[in-house]
């Protein structure tokens, strides 16, 4: 079972929630312990099961198009402390890891596309650093 420590949701159809006829319910931010899962609230089934990692996963975010998920992990001394990009489509595989923090990576988000054409993600860590990464290349 998943142990969710914190959950914030923003249903796009709040009046429907009150009538218990939920059609869309978004859970954009979760803190969780392994074995970690993303649930499809429409089907009430597991949509993605994260492979077990050495360090506890601390946060996740899903891209606007629903194709990718990014999760961050616990760690210390540069071990662990990474964010991982997952493909949520057919393969549901790990695409890339973003390494460079020295303490627990506490948060990770997909940043909205601005003037640049390159998709970017941001991570924050207990090492008091915020890093912005090129989603495709993994570079900063």
UniProtKB/TrEMBL annotation:
Domain of life assignment: Eukaryota
InterPro entries: WD40/YVTN_repeat-like_dom_sf, WD40_repeat_dom_sf, WD40_rpt, WDR31
Record-linked SUPFAM superfamilies: WD40 repeat-like
PANTHER family noted in UniProt: SPERMATID WD-REPEAT PROTEIN (PTHR19869), WD REPEAT-CONTAINING PROTEIN 31 (PTHR19869:SF1)
The name this protein goes by in its record: WD repeat domain 31
């Amino acid at each position: 079972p998943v142990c969710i420590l914190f959950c914030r949701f923003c249903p796009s159809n709040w009046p429907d929630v009150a009538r218990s006829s939920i059609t869309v319910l978004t859970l954009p931010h979760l803190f969780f312990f392994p074995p970690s899962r993303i649930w499809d609230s429409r089907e009430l089934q597991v949509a993605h099961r994260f492979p077990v990692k050495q360090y506890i996963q601390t946060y996740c975010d899903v891209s606007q198009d629903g194709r990718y998920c990014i999760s961050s992990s616990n760690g210390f001394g540069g071990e662990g402390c990474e964010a991982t990009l997952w493909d949520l489509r057919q393969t549901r595989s790990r695409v890339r890891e973003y390494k460079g923090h020295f303490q627990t990576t506490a948060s990770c988000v997909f940043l909205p596309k601005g003037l640049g054409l390159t998709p970017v993600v941001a991570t924050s860590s207990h090492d008091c650093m915020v890093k912005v990464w090129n989603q495709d290349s993994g570079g900063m």
